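Appendix B, Record 12. Input sequence as logged:
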Amino acid sequence: MALGASHRLQDGVIAVETMTRFALAVLALASGVYTYLGVRSLLDGSATAVFFAAIIYSASVSVAIYAFWSYMARFYPHVTGAAARGAMLGVMALGCAMIIAMSSWLNAAALAGSAALEQHLAETVEDYTADLDQAHQNALAAQSLLPDIQRTSERFARLAEDERESGALTGTTGSGSVVQLLSQMSAQLSELETGITASRERVNTLFDQGRAHLETMRGLVSAPGAIAPRSDEFSAEVVALSGVITSLEQTSIAPSVKRAAEDLSLGFIAPVADGRAADLANRQDQVMETIRASVAAQSQVLSQAADDILAREPVADRRFVPLSSAEAVLRYAADFIPAWAGAISIDLLPAVLVFILTVVHGAIRRQEERLPFAQRITAAELLESLEVQRALGRNGLDVEKALQDAEDDEMRERESNITSLEMAAKTPRKGPPA
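Logged structural output:
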């Protein structure tokens, strides 16, 4: 039974030998084709030079893969020693690493290069969207000061009107020094309010331009067709969007608010009391001193608010770096595991065939070792032995007599050894001399 199983395994190995070579050739050719597609995206120059360079490289890869796995399938199954088997495994590991380095990543670039580039563009869009939002928020941060400025300006204007109509502050009606000072403070705050309102319109215009560029970029990411021209258009949109973001950073009104707030306090010039009566002049001086303190407090509040806005983190400088399909596949390898698995499997699938042959040949050797010599000898070996026997007979040597003489000599030698041992045991020991 064991002999029959061994013969069936041997017949199976012979039967699949052609299929094994065909499979190695097809896999090597497939790897070469995808290697050609991947390497073509990396080369620059004329179309003819790129074509021939890619063809030569891919052909070399195909030949190298076919030769390597042919050698492994031919020799590794027949290596039985532990040291030799370990050395062959080391060679196989080194060869697999070299195949992945020269072919598999290019296969992955051919399989998923366009998708990886689109992902790179999509992530770039998300980054620039965040930058645009941050620049927009920084530019509009000063708008939060507008209600306080409006309220303070209206309060100064209302006090000036009350003083003019009813003398609410000094007790004397008319447009005196107090009214002039209150009107001056109200006018300065109104100018600051006008500047903040104008900056809002500028910021909104720039933000609309940035959103238009982002919409164009998103359309390029998902548009059909070749990725290379879309990537070029995308780069142009990125440059335009970067300019918009820079303009938004420079449009912030916060520095102007800070300077205006400091001017309110440092540039405060109170007019001379114009009251003819000494009592009225004293009242005017007291009111103007109160106004000075109020303006100083308001100036400090606005200055602190402007400092908080200026302390915000500015938009970081960002530079769009175009990638080739091979570089994109390497950078975003974790997102394209199926493509990488397919690319590597094309190159390393022959290893499975090699291990199958190794297991089969090992089973054949184990089955043959358990058989007697008469069942292990082949017909060719038997015929060769008979031919040797006839050749010896023609030379006058009787093989059977020679074998019988050899057996007799062996028997006599064995008996002689036994007799010598017995005689040595029966020899009497000599006594001492008399």
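The mean pLDDT is 78.
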